[in-house]
Amino acid sequence: MVDEQFQQLQSLQEDGGSASGFVAEVATLFIDDADRIIADIAALLDQPVVDFDKVDAHVHQLKGSSSSVGAQKVKLACMHFRQFYEAKSKEGCLMALALVRSEFCDVRNKFQTMMQLEQQIEACSPK
CA-to-CA distance for 100 and 120, rounded, in angstroms? Predict the structure, then answer.
């Protein structure tokens, strides 16, 4: 689900180099950004004439965001997406978008669960 990049973010927080809640903040920013990018891609693919260059730019942006937080399955789904927008296949892009959405939903749910658990731990820990 996540790779060593996410573990590095966690170790930054654990080593005291970053404030408590750093990983949760980064995850929240990723979730918000990815939600917006996926909606933008869907809107582009909903057009009668698809601008595949814009689809490329958005998928590339999502791949970068995913990579920066260690969301490996989203990143891999974005890499898979490439073959379809390069071939200018709207049907292929729609299938690839469904996979990206699915992988994003999985990682979003995991991040949200992690953030809830961190809040519970922080609430129970002595001040």
Answer: 30
Taking the alpha carbons at both ends of the chain, their separation in whole angstroms is 33
Range of the domain at 47: 4-112
Structural domains of the chain, count: 1
For 14-67, what is each residue's pLDDT tens digit?
A: 555 445 577 778 889 999 999 999 999 999 999 999 999 999 999 999 999 998
- The residue whose two tokens read 């408590």 is 20
Is residue 107 assigned to a domain?
yes
pTM to 2 decimals?
0.82
Query: Is 123 within the bounds of a domain?
Result: no
CB distance 43 to 50 below 8 Å: no
In this structure, how many other beta carbons lie within 10 angstroms of the beta carbon of residue 35?
Answer: 12
Residue 119 lies in a domain: no
